[in-house]
Amino acid sequence: MVILNCSRVVPKITSLSRPKFTNTQPLVSPVSRRASRAVIVAAVAVSAFSSMSYDRELAAAKKAASLAARLCQKVQKALLQSDVQAKSDKSPVTVADYGSQALVSFVLERELPSDSFSLVAEEDSGDLRKESGQETLQRITKLVNDTIVNDGSFSVPTLTMEDMLRAIDSGKSDGGSHGRHWVLDPIDGTKGFVRGDQYAIALALLDEGKVVLGVLACPNLPLASIGGNRLHSSHDEVGCLFFAKVGAGTYMQSLDGSSPIKVNVSTTDNSEEASFFESFEAAHSSHDLSSSIAKKLGVKAPPVRIDSQAKYGALSRGDGAIYLRFPRKGYREKIWDHAAGCIVVTEAGGVVADAAGNPLDFSKGKYLDLDTGILATNEKLMPLLLKAVRESLEEIPSAL
Ligand SMILES: Nc1ncnc2c1ncn2[C@@H]1O[C@H](COP(=O)(O)O)[C@@H](O)[C@H]1OP(=O)(O)O
Ligand SMILES: [Mg+2]
Ligand SMILES: [Mg+2]
Ligand SMILES: [Mg+2]
């Protein structure tokens, strides 16, 4: 049995050689201006949804993500090596990914019984329906039932293995531009989860193709800032719940249930003091490209490398000012990897765009159809960032 070292939950911070560049002039090209305008037009369109309240949905989403976080914490604390299985794409998937998805689906359906329910989620029950998946399915069923019983707010008979398969498969919706669809990554950053590092339960709601609310539960993220050169200790209090509703701002509370505080992205317009986030896994995002961009911007601080949409959460409270993500050519971004994080950042005053400056479009089904990469920062830095991205992509196209 492998027990993960759970005291090692503080994100690892890898250093980057200090750039010597002094170029800080914000020479905004017409293309960058057009791209920035496109993002602003999209923001105005989203404001049409601000009049809706979505209060019930947000309360249900917070409850679902918090309970799923509890289940995941329990599994991460005593992760059996045999919990890690290979899916066809070779990514590790654990009983916690399935359990989290079943639990979120169960809670949303219970809390919002009158609504028609559509869920676009990462996992499916295919492997669990095979003979070889029976033991795993039993363990998932026990985990979910234990979590529900411990919570004490649902009076339901014990859920069966068949209930579990149904709950997981209710995440088979394709989403799209009509009606409402929940979007779920039951564990975002599974590699971080398996390593004992950062991960997130990411849940969002689409209404007519727009993200109208998002919740990010980050069980291992310190409540205090992880930005800059701050030193972390294993005594830092961890466990953050970020939530955002269209037109209503972004808030953070502890997963233990403290009062929410409003959070805002960094307001710096000085790119030299803008530290940035990127994937821990170099295979998920080109570190060469972000290093080149950082040099052009004159960024002095080393990158903060952590797994999952915890990066969007940290950005939304100003721990750093930029998030860069450049997957290898051919990788297709999924909506559940960005929907919750995107609204958490935009409602905190940030901007999220692809490498051409276009806003992300969540209305096209499971995948995001985008140009090259994803960037998030504040409105003041975005034009400068887009220019640095364009130049770096021209200089080192082989980075992707
Ligand atoms: N080859 C890949 N390139 C880019 N992203 C990937 C790749 N494989 C998995 N992912 C997904 O990228 C996200 C992790 O991003 P990051 O590296 O920023 O933490 C996760 O959603 C992860 O999926 P999963 O939800 O299965 O963990
Ligand atoms: Mg996965
Ligand atoms: Mg993911
Ligand atoms: Mg996942």
TrEMBL record:
<dbReference type="InterPro" id="IPR000760">
    <property type="entry name" value="Inositol_monophosphatase-like"/>
</dbReference>
<dbReference type="GO" id="GO:0008441">
    <property type="term" value="F:3'(2'),5'-bisphosphate nucleotidase activity"/>
</dbReference>
<dbReference type="InterPro" id="IPR051090">
    <property type="entry name" value="Inositol_monoP_superfamily"/>
</dbReference>
<comment type="pathway">
    <text>Signal transduction; phosphatidylinositol signaling pathway.</text>
</comment>
<dbReference type="Pfam" id="PF00459">
    <property type="entry name" value="Inositol_P"/>
</dbReference>
<feature type="binding site">
    <location>
        <position position="187"/>
    </location>
    <ligand>
        <name>Mg(2+)</name>
    </ligand>
</feature>
<dbReference type="GO" id="GO:0043647">
    <property type="term" value="P:inositol phosphate metabolic process"/>
</dbReference>
<dbReference type="InterPro" id="IPR020583">
    <property type="entry name" value="Inositol_monoP_metal-BS"/>
</dbReference>
<feature type="binding site">
    <location>
        <position position="185"/>
    </location>
    <ligand>
        <name>Mg(2+)</name>
    </ligand>
</feature>
<feature type="binding site">
    <location>
        <position position="337"/>
    </location>
    <ligand>
        <name>Mg(2+)</name>
    </ligand>
</feature>
<dbReference type="GO" id="GO:0046854">
    <property type="term" value="P:phosphatidylinositol phosphate biosynthetic process"/>
</dbReference>
<feature type="binding site">
    <location>
        <position position="122"/>
    </location>
    <ligand>
        <name>Mg(2+)</name>
    </ligand>
</feature>
<keyword id="KW-0378">Hydrolase</keyword>
<keyword id="KW-0460">Magnesium</keyword>
<dbReference type="GO" id="GO:0004441">
    <property type="term" value="F:inositol-1,4-bisphosphate 1-phosphatase activity"/>
</dbReference>
<dbReference type="GO" id="GO:0006790">
    <property type="term" value="P:sulfur compound metabolic process"/>
</dbReference>
<feature type="binding site">
    <location>
        <position position="188"/>
    </location>
    <ligand>
        <name>Mg(2+)</name>
    </ligand>
</feature>
<keyword id="KW-0479">Metal-binding</keyword>
<keyword id="KW-0511">Multifunctional enzyme</keyword>
<comment type="similarity">
    <text>Belongs to the inositol monophosphatase superfamily.</text>
</comment>
<dbReference type="InterPro" id="IPR020550">
    <property type="entry name" value="Inositol_monophosphatase_CS"/>
</dbReference>
<protein>
    <recommendedName>
        <fullName>3'(2'),5'-bisphosphate nucleotidase</fullName>
        <ecNumber>3.1.3.7</ecNumber>
    </recommendedName>
</protein>
<comment type="function">
    <text>Converts adenosine 3'-phosphate 5'-phosphosulfate (PAPS) to adenosine 5'-phosphosulfate (APS) and 3'(2')-phosphoadenosine 5'-phosphate (PAP) to AMP.</text>
</comment>
<dbReference type="InterPro" id="IPR006239">
    <property type="entry name" value="DPNP"/>
</dbReference>
<dbReference type="GO" id="GO:0046872">
    <property type="term" value="F:metal ion binding"/>
</dbReference>
